[in-house]
Amino acid sequence: MVTAPLSRWNPGKVDRMATLAERLNAWFADAATPDAVGRLREPTTAEVAKAISEDPGHDVTISRSYLTSLRNGSQTNPTMNVLSAIVRYFQSRDMSLPVSVSALISEPAPPGAPEKKEERTETLADRQVRSIAMRAGKLSPDLREQLLSIMDVLDASRKAPEPAAEEGEA
């Protein structure tokens, strides 16, 4: 199945045009984990349907074909119990996108939600950023400190004004 790219759904802004299928596919993409050779692999529809059906925390059973129809948009009106079970599955994963029933059905975020969280979510939605973070997570604490120092130097050089060029021109 071809999934919708994360860029089609901007979790930082309420997008009433994004469909349930697009949001659900974005969650599948966001739940991707590295395989044995380091490539990101999304959970399969069958794996998710099985995990939801076997979860003792609720009484929802969902078939692979029904979950597929939610992902491809042919089913668009699942029950709240089904939505809650899907949310419960994705909340158990390491996700950067917001995972809640309201996020899935595009209800507006509560007023006063901090903008910084939205900015962080947008940044983490980038696959390269997540890839760097996942690789850094496998490093020893000492190597992570070194990596952070390198990133601080890069960030400082990017932000530093260029006064020498201005003084030389005057």
TrEMBL record:
Name of the protein this chain belongs to = DNA-binding protein
InterPro entries (UniProt xref): Lambda_DNA-bd_dom_sf (IPR010982)
Listed GO molecular functions?
DNA binding
Per its UniProt entry, which superkingdom is the organism in? Bacteria
Annotated source species: Streptomyces sviceus (strain ATCC 29083 / DSM 924 / JCM 4929 / NBRC 13980 / NCIMB 11184 / NRRL 5439 / UC 5370)
